[in-house]
């Protein structure tokens, strides 16, 4: 009970949610507002409960007009299994909610109109959150997919670019199909702003990923993935090749011949503790 109360205390209402709520009240759509809030709450608590189960650091759960965002103080170094489960814990709530409503409708506990309204909203919130746009669940799943075989920095950049392309396509569709749907324009404005903010801070996101590997809780890596680098490569460029879920022995070459090895912790220590941000890898080996 205390754990659930601590999760509820982390819930925040985004200002855009109040805008949509005000529109719903002014147009007397009270039932629609209640159902939407209920679905969004259950969805986000799914993320929150699963994250709490894995002892993740939960910053806050923000409720938005179309869903929500469970903000974690985690930066890409948790086991992939945990990441998948935390992200999918939101969408999976829509399955049992739909089954429950089917049961209640068959038992005559809810009217046909309420049943249809709930099912429509339930599907709408689910499908919208699964769109491959950051920071929606679909965008986070896309990042997990790319980061299984790409460096974290490259995967994150790719997700933001794909998100923007899909947003532009969505924008065009709304202009032609639903040009006067104020709710959709509000939602798209938020998503555009979120993408712009993430692109602006992408370097900061990458630094947090590296810092957590260096200072954070040491997790067991699934695999060793050696990085073969030229001694002339800059340390910062080598760090951009770091991949989540993998430990990187650094194999240094000169003129195609191996001249030594470095542990990734040595490289991270040189970058963060010794502030050697602009040196070449060969300089860490004290080789001319």
Walk me through the topology.
Layout: H1 2-8, E1 11-13, H2 15-26, H3 30-53, E2 58-64, E3 67-72, H4 80-88, H5 93-106, H6 112-129, H7 137-147, H8 152-177, H9 182-200, H10 202-215, E4 223-224, E5 227-230, H11 235-239, E6 246-247, E7 250-254, E8 257-262, H12 264-272
Parallel strand pairs: 1-2, 4-6, 5-7
Antiparallel strand pairs: 2-3, 7-8
Describe this structure in words.
The model has no long low-confidence stretch (mean pLDDT 85). It is built from twelve helices and eight strands. The chain folds into three domains: 1-129, no CATH class; 133-219, no CATH class; 220-285, CBS-domain (Roll), CATH 3.10.580. It starts with a helix and ends in a 16-residue tail after the last helix. The strands form three sheets. It has a three-stranded mixed sheet with strand order 1-2-3. It has 288 residues and is α/β, with parallel strands linked by helices. The protein has helices at residues 2-8, 15-26, 30-53, 80-88, 93-106, 112-129, 137-147, 152-177, 182-200, 202-215, 235-239, 264-272, and strands spanning 11-13, 58-64, 67-72, 223-224, 227-230, 246-247, 250-254, 257-262. Helices cover 58% and strands 12% of the residues. It is elongated, with a radius of gyration of 23 Å.
